[in-house]
Design a protein that fits this description.
Layout lengths: L8 H4 L3 E3 L7 E3 L1 E6 L3 H11 L6 E4 L16 E2 L10 H20 L3 E2 L3 E5 L2 H17 L4 E3 L1 H7 L8 E5 L3 E3 L1 H14 L3 E3 L2 E8 L7 E7 L5 E11 L5 H8 L9 E10 L9 E4 L12 E3 L5 E3 L4 E3 L9 H14 L8 E11 L16 E4 L6 E5 L5 H16 L2
Parallel strand pairs: 3-4, 3-14, 4-11, 7-16, 14-22
Antiparallel strand pairs: 1-2, 5-10, 6-10, 7-9, 8-9, 12-13, 13-14, 15-18, 15-19, 15-20, 17-18, 21-22
Helix pairs in contact: 2-6, 2-9, 3-9
Enzyme class: oxidoreductase
Catalytic activity: (S)-2-hydroxyglutarate + A = 2-oxoglutarate + AH2
Family: Belongs to the L2HGDH family.
Amino acid sequence: MRSKAVATLSNTLPRFGRQFSTSRHVSAEFTHVVIGAGVVGLAIARQLAGREGASTLLLERHSAVGTETSSRNSEVIHAGLYYGTDTLKTTLCIKGKELLYSLCKRHNIPHRRTGKWILAQDDQQWAECLKLHSHAQHIGVPTRFVGREEARRREPDVRARAGIVESPTTGIVDSHALMTFLHGDFEDRGGDCVLQTTVRNIQPLDGGESGYRIYTTSADGEQEGSITTETVINCAGLEACRINNMILPKERHRKAYFAKGTYFSYSASTPRPDILLYPAPKPGLGGLGTHLTLDMAGRVRFGPDVEWVNDQNDLKPSPARLRDAIPEIQEFLLGIKVEDIGVDYCGIRPKLSNLASVSKGKGFQDFIIQEEEGFSGFVNLLGIESPGLTSSLAIGEMVDGLLYK
């Protein structure tokens, strides 16, 4: 791959004048600059690089793509069950799921339709499952009830005292293989990816009407540079609010909140379910509860939990989180060998509120994906957490649509 360092940019790249809408023409070095090379940034950059005559630059502050939230998650292809009917999370998750399965099939990216069971242990949880099933039917996402005999036959070690709802279109994907493909395909389409490059400031030129100047510095702080671009796409994940605040006036600044999630490994050979297991949703919870997922090798992992932290780099697992998680795991999985559960890794989810509900109701925060008013060509993506991986290809199409109306 042709990823390079920022120091060479200002001196070696040609200038372009591109028409990205019907009403504006700007002379700049790039048509698009995408900030952040997680899975969403890669999907957007790949989509935009397919535009004939356009030039697309992808900036990433780390030494490789996809090293933050995109590589520290459950790798689940979500069905789109949990979010309000008219939300971006629902629309983009459902569309993104189909795009992702199709892409993985065409390009042999490891993935699997595992299905998912949502487990209720009492009447209150079953009522939540019934609401989820009804909502799924309304939005066109398949779900079905699993009877006791079927559950006992398929997964005898799983406990669901009050009932099970199955989501057959849920699956898993090798997120690293997916990002490797997106990165390579982006560059095959003529895009440039620059690593170890931090954006330190962005200057709108005539409110964005004449484009933007982006000031950068190398990871070691020794080299600085600047580039001009017609458009800026902010999908910087954990850094997205910082980028937002560089461009927008103070009254439109955003504060980032960080939800740390700890994952737990399981080394015993039994029990080994062959389907993803999630507890019934709890209204107002900042996550989906401690659940069981699988990777492409069939390894079991549990998590993530939710721990609010101030430091986006706080990735040190805490053994205390394991003590809290074990009773939750034992609630739905019989015969679990506690001594074979270990703390594995942590991920940080970018939030726009520390009271955020993951699904619907009070505190719910939808994705923010919009071209900012008064700043032509600046597309902002904020609060891109789950189901960001599933939605990534659909988000790429949406951003393309915002710029090329």
